[in-house]
Amino acid sequence: MSAPAPLPYKLIATDLDGTLLRHDETVSERTRQALAAATAAGAAHIVVTGRAVPWTRHILDLLDYRGLAVCGQGGQVYHAGEHRLLTSVTLDRQLAGLALAKIEAEVGPLHLAASRDGLEGEVLVGPGYRVQEGPLPNVLMDDPGELWAAPLNKVYIQHPTLDDDALALAARQVAGDLVGVTVAGEGIVELLPLGLTKATGLSLAARRLGVTAKDTVAFGDMPNDIPMFAWAARGVAMANAHDELKAVAHEVTASNEEDGVAVVLERLYRS
């Protein structure tokens, strides 16, 4: 009897929004089956998302996902089966305040929101900040001082006229030595602890699972997935991905609405 063929990748890392999830925040049956077949073959699946844990837990529960999840742009490693936060990195609020002052001196007033740390961390939303559509909970913030009242994972910034890429570029130019800046989705420009990326959290989670970068295939759709692609052995961009991510991907698959993750997994993990 011949030995089973070696796994093409021992770890499958998937972003959520625009990648694993469809527009209605569901995962198709085809994609569920493709992931199930890959894990039955011996691969591990790990979710790597920009969402902090409070905005991720309900999706993982609906998926009956019991493994590790990397949340908050790499700042949190969460055990979904145990509903437990294993690691968490917070933003230095003094540096973030200084970064915001420098950015506003360059581009003018910003609209702000912030994600508080912890399993129950609230997302605070200030005046003028456009919240993305959907059921994700948030708390309106009348007093700007509330922004700094408790530990934060990240600060979200929006500008009245600049688009996301232009705002992120300006922020990096004037404050990139103080904070990390990434574009995580439409209308979502984030200020993070300096040096923190999805690759940071993914490498920690992979170490816990006993796998390495060379064992990993990663799927994503936005510029915040670029460090994850640089870390993993193979990066797969969705058809709906940002051009910056497509430029560094090893391949481009179908869109998240057309089972792009499943298309690749079915090819890689044929029985």
What does this structure look like?
It is a single chain. Helices cover 30% and strands 24% of the residues. Helix 2 runs parallel beside helix 9. The strands form two sheets. The protein has an eight-stranded mixed sheet with strand order 5-4-3-2-1-12-13-14. Strands 8-7-6-9-11-10 form a six-stranded mixed sheet. It contains nine helices and 14 strands. It has two domains: 11-88 and 197-268, Rossmann fold (3-Layer(aba) Sandwich); 93-193, Hypothetical Protein, Haloacid Dehalogenase-like Hydrolase, Chain: A, domain 2, CATH 3.30.1240. A hairpin with a 2-residue loop joins strand 10 (179-185) and strand 11. It is an alpha/beta fold and 271 residues long.
> How many helices?
9
Overall form? globular
Poorly predicted ranges: none
Overall average pLDDT: 94
- Strand coverage percent: 15-25%
Widest beta sheet: strand line-up: 5-4-3-2-1-12-13-14
- In N-to-C order, the SSE pattern is EHHEHEEEHEEEEHEEHEHEHEH
> Strand pairing plus helix content: what structural class?
alpha/beta
Number of domains: 2
Task: Report on the biggest sheet.
Answer: 8 strands, mixed
CATH architecture of the largest domain: 3-Layer(aba) Sandwich
